[in-house]
Structure formats: C-alpha cells, structure tokens
Design brief:
Strand order of the largest sheet: 2-1-3-4-5
Largest sheet: 5 strands, parallel
Shape: globular
Radius of gyration: 18 Å
Distance between the termini: 48 Å
Number of helices: 12
CATH class of the largest domain: Alpha Beta
CATH topology of the largest domain: Rossmann fold
Structural class: alpha/beta
Length: 218
C-alpha cells in the first residue's frame, strides 16, 4: 500500500511542488492538504495519514500542529519541511516529537527517499544539521543537556505539559495558549491542573516559580 501523506504549508506553490513530486512516485499518495495548523490537525484526525509533512512557519504554528498530532496520533510519522536552519527550530521540533527535519532546498527525489526512510523508522535530518546537533549536545551546555530529558523537573511532565509551562512562564494567557497550541481553553486549564498536581504545588504561580528556579539553577 502507498504511504498516505498529509501536506501542510501556507505557501500554495510549495504544496503543489511537493504534491507533484510525491504524485510521480508510486510509493506515496497525498491524502490531504492544509494551509494552517488548525486545518492540519483537523485533517490528520479525520484522515489518519501515515505521514504528515508540516511547515514550521505556517499560520497557527507548525510546532503547535506537531504537538497536537503527535499526542493524538502516535502512530503517524511527522516530518518538518522548512527553510529554517536555526538551531532553536531544529531542537524544538525534535523535542516535540518530529521524526525528521528537512529543508525545502532539497531535491524532490531526495525528499521522496527521505520520507520513505521515515516511514521505515529511520530519522531524516540533513548531514549539516546532524553535525551541528552533535556539537550542541557535546558542548556541555546545561540548557542543551536538559533537551535530552535529563532534567528532573522536566521528566515529571509530558511534552505537552512542559511546552505549556514554558508559555505560562512567558506570561501567555489561557486564551493565547489555547490559540497557539490549537487547543480549547478548557483543555489548557486541564493541563495546568495536571502540572500543578504533578509538581506538588498550590497553583500555577507556584508552578511557574518552580520552572524559573529550575532555569536559574541550570
């Protein structure tokens, strides 16, 4: 059976290029397309694709769509397709559960082969980014070590709860977090309640204080 792919990118010519490239390859079939994070999540939940190809910079945030799809469709592989070579974007995507991080400058044939590798359980990251990733994790920076999951506070929380706590620390409101993460406000409040319970604190203010203390210690 061909690999069913969802393409999400707000740049229609990019979607067309990817659709054309995959359409010429019998290994794939494009089952859905979206121009933003909310639509990508909705279509993923409806169509259950084998693989989602997400742009980081699309409306609603590709990382937000990644978080939501990864948490609700654990068997779906997710690959970010972007122009960004920034370390922050790369590490955020990997922390969020991405199975690959590819650049839009790659050839159509290489893209198809990389997606086939991901579907087979192999990672897909350009060599130049792998080298930088290895250097970052090797340099002894405590902030980088925490990305690998060695931080005790982070280990108590799910990936979604950790991301939400980071947004709370940055003074995002419940409504703003809901929009950013493509969640309902009631779901955000439920996540906050879980964070408070797991950290053994009284309220969100104490949870934020714990997060800040942990950051300053690191």
């Amino acid at each position: 059976m061909p690999i069913r792919v969802l393409i999400a990118d707000d740049h229609e010519p990019t979607r067309e290029d990817v659709r054309r490239a995959l359409g010429r390859d019998e290994r794939f079939v494009v089952c859905a397309e979206a121009a933003g994070a909310a639509a990508a999540v909705a279509l993923a939940l409806e169509r259950h694709p084998d693989l989602c190809l997400l742009d980081i910079r699309m409306p609603g945030g590709g990382l937000a769509a990644l978080w939501e799809i990864a948490s609700r469709l654990p068997d779906t592989k997710i690959v970010m397709l972007t122009v960004s070579e920034a370390d922050d974007d790369l590490f955020a995507a990997l922390r969020s559960g991405a199975h690959g991080y590819l650049l839009k400058t790659m050839s159509a044939r290489r893209l198809a082969d990389a997606l086939d590798d991901v579907n087979a359980g192999k990672p897909a990251i350009p060599r130049e980014l792998v080298a930088r990733m290895m250097q970052e994790f090797r340099d002894g920076d405590p902030r980088r070590r925490s990305l690998a999951g060695t931080d005790e506070l982070q280990a108590r929380l799910t990936s979604r709860e950790w991301q939400l706590l980071e947004l709370l620390e940055r003074s995002f409101t419940t409504a703003e977090i809901a929009e950013r993460l493509t969640l309902s406000e009631s779901a955000v409040r439920a996540h906050i309640a879980a964070i408070v319970r797991k950290l053994g604190v009284r309220d969100r203010a104490e949870a934020i204080a714990r997060f800040r203390d942990r950051s300053s210690d690191g």
